[in-house]
Amino acid sequence: MSANGNSVNIEKKPYHHGDLRAALIAEGLRLLAERDADSLSLREVARGAGVSATSVYRHFPDKEALVTALAREGLSQLGTAQRAASDAAGGGDAGFAATGRAYVRFALANPALFRLIFASPALAPERAGGTFESEADALLQAHAAREAAAHGGEAAVRAVQAWALVHGLAMLMLDGQIPMDETLIDRAIGPDC
Fold this sequence. Notes:
Blueprint: H1 20-32, H2 42-49, H3 53-56, H4 63-88, H5 92-109, H6 111-119, H7 124-129, H8 135-151, H9 155-174, H10 182-188
Helix pairs in contact: 1-2, 1-4, 4-5, 4-6, 4-8, 5-6, 5-8, 5-9, 8-9
């Protein structure tokens, strides 16, 4: 009781979750491993992160903002996987082919996240506004420029050709049109792609 005897003296501890924004993104990514982005809810993400539903709104004003953050994080993870694959292959043409194989394998390992990144409007405002940047795109553009310089042609067209190959392969496998086959990935995206 307090000194006046009319109320209980409870010490209030300040709420502190650490990096709540990162925790919410991590939980959203975890949920995307189980289902598609359309079925996510802010309430469910909050519950999974162990916070109240209203605390989500401090970082994400709506589901669209959370989904955009999830797509950005997924694209960052894709770029990291591609950079690691390129480095492991020694860079150059072999490294670039490795980035393509990493792209397909990322899609197969993270189908809902991959579709969120590439088949949803989540990143459309950034793309349309010219503010879209990612390591995955930087790797693609750099290789296309090297290829155009070495063999002629337009870098932009070479970039589209390379992306179409890996994206098409990923989508064909995700949609069950062709089997998810590691050997096929390696053969279709060889060092001369």
